[in-house]
């Protein structure tokens, strides 16, 4: 699949910043190690600011739809904990089974609730009904934070689980030059990088930060149009007395987790 000719890559963003700093767009003008390092630092900061943007005035902070990829994992009988991808940030939504493996999803709950279920009967196995994300213990400085998924009951067979998550994306490089979001958000990303360069040079926010916030509002509006219009049934299901239905269990939801 070919890339849109309106997309911007790593070299384009460095060129925009270099032109703003007065170094010119041609890479030969900033081929020195110090200038190249400065451009890479600014572009990294600009991309981070775009991926995790400040709130548009009057709105809640936005989570980009394009930063919610789908991943799968396969369970192993008698194992209840599973490493999540190295770039895992936050789980988004419930975890579903492959077709014909279950009628309802794995409910995401707090890690404490999983421990309570294990405490009540740690030997029970079966098709998982509950799951929780918990941070793994790491040696400070040796690696970034990693996460794992724990399931209850402990799987008794191989199940294919699918989930969406918000990742911690990698920095742009010459080998992987294109940011998430694509051409639709290219101008917003440019202004984010220029806002960082402007603040680094002048030690204060200026015209490019204002332009970034203006473009951010347009990007957020565009991204929200990509969201689904139908989110599912919203009701109490008081007449549903199916024995397996997870809707019959009472939960309190705190920070997106059922407890």
Tally of DSSP β-strands? 11
Low-confidence runs of at least 5 consecutive residues: 237-253
Q: How is the largest sheet built, in terms of strand order?
A: 2-7-6-4
- Give the class from helix and strand content and strand pairing: alpha+beta
Instruction: Give the count of helical stretches.
Output: 5
Taken in chain order, the helices and strands follow as HHEEEEHEEEEEHHEE
Average pLDDT confidence is 87
Calculate the terminal CA-CA distance, rounded to whole Å. Answer: 44 Å
Give the number of domains: 2
Characterize the main sheet.
4 strands, mixed
Report the helical percentage.
25-40%
Radius of gyration from CA coordinates: 23 Å
Q: How much of the residues is beta strand, in percent?
A: 15-25%
Shape type: elongated
Features:
259 residues; 5 helices; 29% helix; three-stranded antiparallel beta sheet; alpha+beta; 2 domains
Topology (elements, then pairings):
Elements: H1 10-20, H2 33-51, E1 70-74, E2 81-83, E3 88-97, E4 107-108, H3 111-120, E5 125-126, E6 130-135, E7 147-152, E8 154-155, E9 160-167, H4 186-202, H5 207-224, E10 253-254, E11 257-258
Parallel strand pairs: 4-6, 5-8
Antiparallel strand pairs: 1-9, 2-7, 3-9, 6-7, 10-11
């Amino acid at each position: 699949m070919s890339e849109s000719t309106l997309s911007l890559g790593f070299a384009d963003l460095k060129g925009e910043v270099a032109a703003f700093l007065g170094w010119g767009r041609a890479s030969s003008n900033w081929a020195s190690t110090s200038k190249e390092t400065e451009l890479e630092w600014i572009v990294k900061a600009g991309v981070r600011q775009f991926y995790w943007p400040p709130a548009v005035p009057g709105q809640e902070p936005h989570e980009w739809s394009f930063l919610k990829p789908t991943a799968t994992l396969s369970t192993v009988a008698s194992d209840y904990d599973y490493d999540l991808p190295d770039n895992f940030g936050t789980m988004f939504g419930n975890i579903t089974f492959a077709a014909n493996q279950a009628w309802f999803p794995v409910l995401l709950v707090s890690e404490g609730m999983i421990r309570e279920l294990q405490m009540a009967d740690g030997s029970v196995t079966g098709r998982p009904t509950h799951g929780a994300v918990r941070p793994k213990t790491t040696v400070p400085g040796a690696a970034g934070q990693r996460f794992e998924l724990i399931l209850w009951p402990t799987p008794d067979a191989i199940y294919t689980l699918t989930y969406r998550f918000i990742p911690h994306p990698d920095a742009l490089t010459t080998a992987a030059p294109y940011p998430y979001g694509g051409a639709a958000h290219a101008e917003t990303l440019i202004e984010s990088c220029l806002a960082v360069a402007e603040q680094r040079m002048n030690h204060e926010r200026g015209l490019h930060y204002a332009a970034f916030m203006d473009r951010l509002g347009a990007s957020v509006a565009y991204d929200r149009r990509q969201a689904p219009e139908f989110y599912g049934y919203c009701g109490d299901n008081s007449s549903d007395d199916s024995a397996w239905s997870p809707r019959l269990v009472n939960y309190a939801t705190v920070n997106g987790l059922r407890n």
